[in-house]
Amino acid sequence: MLLPLLSLSALWGFVLNLTMGDAQSLLRANTLYRTLGVTSTDLGLQLQAERVRSAETLTTRKLTSVLSAQRARTDRSATDFKLAVMEAGGSVGDDLRLPLDTLQSALGRLGAIRADIDGGLGSRLAGLNEYNRILDAIFTLYDHLVSVSDLTIFQQASSLQAMGMAREYIAREHALIIGALADRRLTAPEVSAFTEYAASRKFLHARGLAGLDVTLRRPYEQVFATEPFQTFATMEARIIKTGSPPPTAEGWTEAVDQLTSRLDQLGSSSAGVLATRTSEAATSTIVKISVAGGVGLIAVLASIIISVRFGRRLAGELAGLRSAAIELSQSRLPDIVERLRRGEEVDVRKEARAIRVHGSAEITDVARAFGSVQRTAVTAAVGQAAMRRGVGQVFLNLARRKQGLLHRQLSLLDAMQRRTHDPDRLEELFRLDHLTTRMRRHAESLMILSGSAPGRAWRKPVPVIDIVRAAIAEIEDYTRVSVEGMPVAAVDGTAAADLTHLVAELVENATIYSPPDTTVQVRGDLVSNGYVIEVEDRGLGLSVAEYSAFNTRMAAPPEFDLADSDRLGLFVVAKLAERYGIKVLLRASPFGGTTAIVLVPRSMVTEQAALEAGDVDGKADLPSRTRKKALAVVTSGTHAGLPRRVRQANLVPQLKESPPLGQERAPEQEPREQEPPPERSPDEVRDLFSAFQRGTQRAREEASEEGP
User: Fold this and answer.
1) Which is it for strands 481-483 and 520-527: parallel, antiparallel or unpaired?
2) Which of 48, 396, 401, 503 has the fewest Cβ atoms nearer than 10 Å?
3) SS3 letters for 440-485?
């Protein structure tokens, strides 16, 4: 109901503004006529008179008192015009600024024009043309003064403007002939100019008479039928034909003076008639506006009163509906969603109760629609929660089955390693063991995504260095990872497996998103708030917006979305960090890559001064298998961290090849800055892995005695 009311008010205001604009335009035209129109007309007459006197001076080269007196009258008229411009004030719009500035600039040149005339500079025609330019600026201003919306008045004003311009061309002819009568000759340029003036005068008279109505045209027709105009027209034609001035000045001057006097009186009276019409049209328009505006205002007020009465009742009904909708959207639905997230059961029929409101049929229909939306939303939320639980249960079941198979596979690999003494076979079994360990980590990721926790845990604290080494051992490209010196400390055994998983995900992410020929740096430090582990790569890095988005997800991980699977590793990191209160921050590295900062809280950290970071005796609380693989990462050997084979190492001395006579095999040397450690023989490798197997067996026995 408000929209029609606003539309009616806008329409009434538009019509009122439109009609008021017409009235203001007419009133403005009347004001401009009384100020600029009257004074500019007098200024034009004075300039025309001064031009005639200047033509005589340009011919005789003598300054007369008549010219000086005329110049004084012209100056007074120019002053009156400037005062009229100030009096017009707000009626002078932007459309008049340019012609007014042009006219005032032309009037500013009047002093220089007079100085050239007094000094005898320039020709007679050139001096007269300077005055013509000033008068052209006045008539340009006249054209802009005729700006009324009434088409009839505009047409009559334009026609009177044409008659006035024709009067100016008569004055130009008169000034040119007066100068020529002084020396009894007309130059060829002056004859051409006179002919042009006469043609323009005839055209303007014809156009003006065609546009004037009967009342304004009849006086001009009477003037054109009088003897002065006939005499002027005859002498004008003779001058054009012969190219010489009239024989006597008296006949020409008398005819022109009588004609211009009558034309000036007629122009003044016609302008007065047109001004009266303009004023009457403005008054009539204002009366019509008052009547139409009053009736429209009454209609608008009546519509407002009726709309307010209906609006109050509708507002009350809508207020009840709004309260019910707000309660639904801000209280009931969020509470249901939160309960579903906690895993509680929700009765759709009970929770999606109908919204009760009173009012018109439309309001009750809207309430029923809201109730339908509520039932749909609750049903969808319950279904989505059930689907999420089902997906999580599927993840959990698959992860547990996979984990069981992987444990069996690891046991088989242990048995095969104990029975194998071939270095090549041991290397392949070690790679398979490493691949199985990575698969176990991915299975644990599925359990984390499902909302469960992996089953690995230890009672005693686990050294941080062992956790870092175990994390590096669980990634594919572990040979690119460099571990710097880390202060001795340990982490609560219940969180050791999850912290290992968290660091492994970050290190693997660093190796994947950095060039294969670069190194990933891992370092740690014991700080006042806990223990800091930093993982730094030399990749391309991320943008500021991406860092901000990832850090927000790390601080408050959202619900897992099946459609968003591009960053599963970071999502697992966020869930693990949230579980133990660990803070994870990603930021740009000074080397161009990314630095991941892991802050383990002080409550989970235990300082152990007696614990050595490089202890390899198998007595630490990290499982023996994990510790064995972690230590293998930092041993020398092949590119995968495995022992190298030595050619002919297992042969007896008699079967080994001897170098040619006179030649001795020089030991291979590498650059001094990277000397490799001595390679182990197959027997040493077998003994080393046998030691690993014994350590594994001893750790299993200890774990079975202590329990998880």
Assistant:
1) parallel
2) 401
3) HHHHHHHHHHCCCCCCCCCCCCEEHHHHHHHHHHCCCCHHHEEECC
